[in-house]
Amino acid sequence: MDLEIAGKRALVLASSRGLGLGIAEALAAEGADVLLCGRSADRLSANAAAINAKGRGKAHGVAADLADPAFAETMIEAADKALGGIDILVNNTGGPPPGGATEMSVEVLQAQFQMMVARVVDLSTRALPAMRSAGFGRILTVGSSGVVQPIPNLAYSNTLRSALVGWTKSLSNEVAADGVTVNMLLPGRIHTDRVDELDAANAKRSDKPIDAIRESARQSIPAKRYGTVEEFAAVAAFLVSARAAYVTGSVVRCDGGAIKSV
C-alpha cells in the first residue's frame, strides 16, 4: 500500500534511538523527509546518515532537550530551516523515573509534566496553524499502555501520559474539519533499551533474575513475545499517512493483546 506521504515533512521527537528512531526510519522509507531530534548530536548525525544512505526520504538531525523551556520554539525554527515546515508531527518523549503512587514527589511530577506534557502541547499548538492552512496535518503522540491499564511501579508515567489522552481527543475535535488528524499510539512491551531498563529495575526491586522478569512478561502477553520496533513503527506510519485521513481522536494499541480490557 502506498501511504502517500512521499515528500511530506515529518518532525519526530526523541528519535535518537528506540521507538522514535524506528518511526523516523519507517517514514523515510515511505519517502518522507524527516527531522530527528534528541540530546546527542553525534547519535543523531549517525542516524541521519544511515537513513540517507538508503536513498528515499532525506533525514536531518537537530540536538534539543525537552527540559529547555524554549524547546517548542527551537524545534519550529529547526523544522522550518531543515524541512521548510511540518506536515507530520510525532510527539515522543522519554519516560519518567519508575516508582509507586505513594512514592510520588510533587517536585518530580511538576518537572516531568513540563517535559512530557507541556512541551508536547506547546509544540503541537505552534505547528497547527500551517497544517490547518494547508488542509493537511498529522499529529501522533506516542503514549503507553498504562493509560488504559496502569502499569505497576510506573505511577508518574500512568499519570502524565493519561493527561495527553484527554488533550488528544479535545484537540482532534477542534481541527478535524481542517484536514488535521490527532491520534495517540500506545506501545505495550516493545523491545527497546527503555524496556530493558524497566526490566532491570523490576528485577532489582523484586530480587529476581532479569530473565525471570522477561519470561513472566512474555507469558502475560497473548502473543507470548515482546513486539519489535519495526512492527510498532509500521502502525505509526499508517496513522500519519494520507490513507488514514478518517482516523482521528483515536487511542490505538500496539501491544500484542497485553491490555486485558476491551
UniProtKB/TrEMBL annotation:
<dbReference type="InterPro" id="IPR002347">
    <property type="entry name" value="SDR_fam"/>
</dbReference>
<dbReference type="Pfam" id="PF13561">
    <property type="entry name" value="adh_short_C2"/>
</dbReference>
<dbReference type="InterPro" id="IPR036291">
    <property type="entry name" value="NAD(P)-bd_dom_sf"/>
</dbReference>
<dbReference type="InterPro" id="IPR050259">
    <property type="entry name" value="SDR"/>
</dbReference>
<protein>
    <submittedName>
        <fullName>SDR family oxidoreductase</fullName>
    </submittedName>
</protein>
<comment type="similarity">
    <text>Belongs to the short-chain dehydrogenases/reductases (SDR) family.</text>
</comment>
